[in-house]
């Protein structure tokens, strides 16, 4: 399912215009991304939790030069489903 399919399903179920639903979903995504960039945790009860995790440095071998390199720490977005959503 892509963004357009999701909007159409919501439109059929709620009778809200495509434009308004698209605006709401876009703003929802922006709020989530802004909060994650600040390191905040977003907990939506009954759905799940958005949060970030820092990955540590690790060594890897470059496939091109065959040299050993060190990767930097990275902050990765994560999502954990609510226990109510497990099938």
UniProtKB/TrEMBL annotation:
Which Pfam family would be a valid example here? Bac_DNA_binding
Top-level lineage group: Bacteria
Presence of keyword Plastid = no
Q: Which UniProt keywords apply?
A: DNA-binding
Family annotation (InterPro entries)? Hist_DNA-bd, IHF-like_DNA-bd_dom_sf
SMART domains to which the protein is assigned, alphabetical: BHL
Q: Which terms does the record give in the GO molecular function aspect? A: DNA binding; structural constituent of chromatin
Keyword Repeat appears in the UniProt entry: no
Q: Which family does it belong to?
A: Belongs to the bacterial histone-like protein family.
Protein name as annotated: HU family DNA-binding protein
